[in-house]
Write a structure and sequence with these properties.
Length: 223
Protein backbone atom coordinates (compact mmCIF):
# COMPACT_ATOMS: atom_id res chain seq x y z
CA UNK A 1 0.00 0.00 0.00
CA UNK A 2 2.82 2.40 0.84
CA UNK A 3 4.45 1.97 -2.56
CA UNK A 4 1.10 2.63 -4.22
CA UNK A 5 0.66 5.84 -2.22
CA UNK A 6 4.13 7.05 -3.16
CA UNK A 7 3.49 6.09 -6.77
CA UNK A 8 0.25 8.05 -6.82
CA UNK A 9 2.03 10.97 -5.19
CA UNK A 10 4.53 10.99 -8.04
CA UNK A 11 1.65 10.71 -10.48
CA UNK A 12 0.18 13.83 -8.93
CA UNK A 13 3.57 15.43 -9.32
CA UNK A 14 4.13 14.42 -12.91
CA UNK A 15 2.56 14.16 -16.31
CA UNK A 16 5.53 13.88 -18.73
CA UNK A 17 6.26 16.20 -21.70
CA UNK A 18 4.75 19.62 -22.37
CA UNK A 19 3.17 18.58 -25.65
CA UNK A 20 -0.34 19.84 -26.38
CA UNK A 21 -2.63 16.83 -26.06
CA UNK A 22 -3.37 15.01 -29.30
CA UNK A 23 -6.22 12.58 -28.76
CA UNK A 24 -7.52 9.87 -31.09
CA UNK A 25 -10.45 10.83 -33.29
CA UNK A 26 -13.73 11.04 -31.42
CA UNK A 27 -12.18 11.98 -28.06
CA UNK A 28 -12.29 15.72 -28.52
CA UNK A 29 -9.57 18.32 -28.00
CA UNK A 30 -7.94 20.05 -25.07
CA UNK A 31 -9.09 23.50 -23.99
CA UNK A 32 -6.78 26.35 -25.14
CA UNK A 33 -7.77 28.39 -22.07
CA UNK A 34 -6.62 25.56 -19.81
CA UNK A 35 -3.32 25.48 -21.67
CA UNK A 36 -2.80 29.20 -20.98
CA UNK A 37 -3.08 28.53 -17.25
CA UNK A 38 -0.75 25.53 -17.42
CA UNK A 39 1.79 27.50 -19.46
CA UNK A 40 1.75 30.23 -16.82
CA UNK A 41 2.30 27.68 -14.03
CA UNK A 42 5.22 26.17 -15.95
CA UNK A 43 6.83 29.54 -16.67
CA UNK A 44 6.54 30.63 -13.03
CA UNK A 45 8.06 27.41 -11.70
CA UNK A 46 11.05 27.62 -14.03
CA UNK A 47 12.09 30.86 -12.35
CA UNK A 48 12.61 29.07 -9.02
CA UNK A 49 16.17 27.94 -8.20
CA UNK A 50 14.88 25.48 -5.61
CA UNK A 51 11.58 24.43 -4.07
CA UNK A 52 10.85 23.17 -0.58
CA UNK A 53 7.27 22.31 0.29
CA UNK A 54 5.12 20.26 2.65
CA UNK A 55 2.11 18.26 1.56
CA UNK A 56 -0.78 16.36 3.08
CA UNK A 57 -2.27 13.25 1.49
CA UNK A 58 -5.87 12.36 2.32
CA UNK A 59 -7.27 9.05 1.11
CA UNK A 60 -11.03 8.58 0.71
CA UNK A 61 -13.05 5.54 -0.38
CA UNK A 62 -15.98 5.50 -2.82
CA UNK A 63 -18.38 6.48 -0.02
CA UNK A 64 -16.33 9.56 0.83
CA UNK A 65 -15.06 8.11 4.10
CA UNK A 66 -11.52 9.13 5.00
CA UNK A 67 -9.28 6.06 5.06
CA UNK A 68 -6.15 7.79 6.21
CA UNK A 69 -4.12 10.99 6.26
CA UNK A 70 -0.39 11.15 5.68
CA UNK A 71 2.05 14.04 5.61
CA UNK A 72 5.27 14.52 3.75
CA UNK A 73 7.67 16.92 2.13
CA UNK A 74 9.29 17.48 -1.24
CA UNK A 75 12.59 19.16 -2.04
CA UNK A 76 13.59 20.07 -5.62
CA UNK A 77 16.59 21.70 -7.25
CA UNK A 78 17.05 21.50 -11.00
CA UNK A 79 16.54 17.84 -11.94
CA UNK A 80 17.26 16.67 -8.39
CA UNK A 81 14.53 15.84 -5.88
CA UNK A 82 13.75 14.24 -2.55
CA UNK A 83 10.31 13.07 -1.49
CA UNK A 84 9.62 12.08 2.11
CA UNK A 85 6.31 10.50 3.10
CA UNK A 86 5.38 8.45 6.15
CA UNK A 87 7.64 5.40 6.14
CA UNK A 88 9.54 6.12 2.94
CA UNK A 89 12.21 8.47 1.60
CA UNK A 90 13.05 8.85 -2.09
CA UNK A 91 16.29 10.52 -3.17
CA UNK A 92 17.28 11.42 -6.74
CA UNK A 93 20.46 13.23 -7.79
CA UNK A 94 19.38 13.46 -11.42
CA UNK A 95 20.89 10.11 -12.40
CA UNK A 96 20.30 7.63 -9.57
CA UNK A 97 17.23 6.98 -7.40
CA UNK A 98 17.41 5.64 -3.83
CA UNK A 99 14.14 4.40 -2.33
CA UNK A 100 14.49 3.93 1.41
CA UNK A 101 11.94 1.86 3.35
CA UNK A 102 12.33 3.01 6.95
CA UNK A 103 10.51 0.09 8.61
CA UNK A 104 12.42 -2.57 6.67
CA UNK A 105 15.72 -0.63 6.93
CA UNK A 106 16.18 -1.33 3.24
CA UNK A 107 17.19 0.92 0.34
CA UNK A 108 16.71 0.06 -3.32
CA UNK A 109 18.99 1.73 -5.86
CA UNK A 110 17.90 2.19 -9.47
CA UNK A 111 18.84 4.30 -12.47
CA UNK A 112 16.62 7.25 -13.36
CA UNK A 113 14.72 6.68 -16.58
CA UNK A 114 15.32 9.81 -18.65
CA UNK A 115 12.75 8.91 -21.29
CA UNK A 116 9.95 11.36 -22.04
CA UNK A 117 7.50 9.33 -19.97
CA UNK A 118 9.54 9.18 -16.79
CA UNK A 119 8.00 10.56 -13.61
CA UNK A 120 9.62 13.23 -11.45
CA UNK A 121 8.06 15.70 -8.97
CA UNK A 122 9.29 18.66 -11.03
CA UNK A 123 6.86 17.77 -13.79
CA UNK A 124 3.91 18.65 -11.59
CA UNK A 125 4.88 22.28 -11.99
CA UNK A 126 6.33 22.33 -15.50
CA UNK A 127 5.40 19.58 -17.95
CA UNK A 128 2.35 17.74 -16.69
CA UNK A 129 0.08 18.56 -19.64
CA UNK A 130 1.18 16.09 -22.28
CA UNK A 131 0.08 13.86 -25.12
CA UNK A 132 -1.42 11.37 -22.64
CA UNK A 133 -4.13 13.71 -21.34
CA UNK A 134 -6.98 15.92 -22.43
CA UNK A 135 -7.51 18.97 -20.23
CA UNK A 136 -10.20 21.58 -19.72
CA UNK A 137 -10.59 24.68 -17.56
CA UNK A 138 -13.41 24.31 -15.05
CA UNK A 139 -15.11 27.25 -13.27
CA UNK A 140 -13.02 29.06 -10.64
CA UNK A 141 -13.53 28.19 -6.99
CA UNK A 142 -12.95 30.33 -3.89
CA UNK A 143 -11.48 28.93 -0.68
CA UNK A 144 -10.19 30.80 2.37
CA UNK A 145 -10.29 34.12 0.57
CA UNK A 146 -8.30 32.91 -2.43
CA UNK A 147 -9.41 32.13 -5.99
CA UNK A 148 -8.32 28.93 -7.69
CA UNK A 149 -8.43 27.93 -11.32
CA UNK A 150 -9.38 24.27 -11.71
CA UNK A 151 -7.87 22.16 -14.48
CA UNK A 152 -9.45 18.78 -15.20
CA UNK A 153 -7.26 16.16 -16.88
CA UNK A 154 -8.61 12.99 -18.47
CA UNK A 155 -6.24 10.18 -19.53
CA UNK A 156 -6.43 9.21 -23.19
CA UNK A 157 -5.37 5.67 -22.29
CA UNK A 158 -8.52 4.20 -20.76
CA UNK A 159 -6.60 1.30 -19.19
CA UNK A 160 -5.20 3.67 -16.55
CA UNK A 161 -6.43 2.91 -13.00
CA UNK A 162 -7.66 6.51 -12.66
CA UNK A 163 -10.18 8.35 -14.82
CA UNK A 164 -9.73 11.97 -13.74
CA UNK A 165 -7.21 14.33 -12.15
CA UNK A 166 -8.15 17.79 -10.86
CA UNK A 167 -5.46 20.42 -10.30
CA UNK A 168 -6.17 23.60 -8.34
CA UNK A 169 -3.99 26.56 -9.35
CA UNK A 170 -3.93 29.67 -7.18
CA UNK A 171 -5.03 32.35 -9.64
CA UNK A 172 -2.85 35.22 -8.39
CA UNK A 173 0.42 33.35 -7.91
CA UNK A 174 0.02 30.72 -10.66
CA UNK A 175 1.24 28.03 -8.23
CA UNK A 176 -0.41 24.62 -7.83
CA UNK A 177 -2.12 24.26 -4.45
CA UNK A 178 -3.63 20.79 -4.65
CA UNK A 179 -4.13 17.74 -6.85
CA UNK A 180 -6.94 15.19 -6.69
CA UNK A 181 -6.65 11.76 -8.30
CA UNK A 182 -9.87 9.80 -8.90
CA UNK A 183 -9.49 6.04 -9.29
CA UNK A 184 -11.95 3.83 -11.14
CA UNK A 185 -12.57 1.80 -7.99
CA UNK A 186 -13.92 4.91 -6.28
CA UNK A 187 -10.89 5.77 -4.18
CA UNK A 188 -9.73 9.38 -4.19
CA UNK A 189 -6.33 10.79 -3.30
CA UNK A 190 -6.09 14.48 -2.36
CA UNK A 191 -2.64 16.07 -2.22
CA UNK A 192 -2.61 19.55 -0.68
CA UNK A 193 0.65 21.50 -0.98
CA UNK A 194 1.62 24.02 1.70
CA UNK A 195 4.51 26.01 3.14
CA UNK A 196 6.24 26.34 -0.21
CA UNK A 197 9.59 28.13 -0.15
CA UNK A 198 11.46 29.03 -3.34
CA UNK A 199 14.46 30.78 -1.82
CA UNK A 200 15.99 28.04 0.33
CA UNK A 201 19.68 27.26 -0.24
CA UNK A 202 19.82 23.51 -0.79
CA UNK A 203 23.16 21.61 -0.85
CA UNK A 204 23.49 18.95 -3.55
CA UNK A 205 24.15 16.16 -1.05
CA UNK A 206 20.54 16.55 0.14
CA UNK A 207 19.56 14.43 -2.86
CA UNK A 208 21.97 11.55 -2.27
CA UNK A 209 21.34 8.62 0.08
CA UNK A 210 24.38 8.01 2.29
CA UNK A 211 24.69 4.66 4.04
CA UNK A 212 26.87 6.38 6.65
CA UNK A 213 23.78 8.23 7.88
CA UNK A 214 21.73 5.00 8.01
CA UNK A 215 23.87 2.33 9.74
CA UNK A 216 22.67 -1.23 9.32
CA UNK A 217 20.56 -0.52 6.21
CA UNK A 218 20.32 -3.30 3.63
CA UNK A 219 21.29 -2.14 0.15
CA UNK A 220 19.55 -3.68 -2.88
CA UNK A 221 21.23 -2.46 -6.07
CA UNK A 222 18.89 -2.87 -9.06
CA UNK A 223 21.08 -1.03 -11.57
Amino acid sequence: MLKKIVGLFLLAFAFSNNVFAQAPKGMGKSDPEAKKVLDAVSAKFKTFKSVKASFTLKIENAAGKVQGVKTGSVLMKGVKYRVTITGQDIFCDGATIWTYDMAAKEVQISTLDNSSGSITPQKLFTNFYDKDFLFVLNPDVKKDGKTYQVIELTPIDKTKPFFKVLIDVEKSSKVIASTRVFEKNGNRYLYAISNMSTSTVVPDDSFIFSTKKYPGVEVIDLR
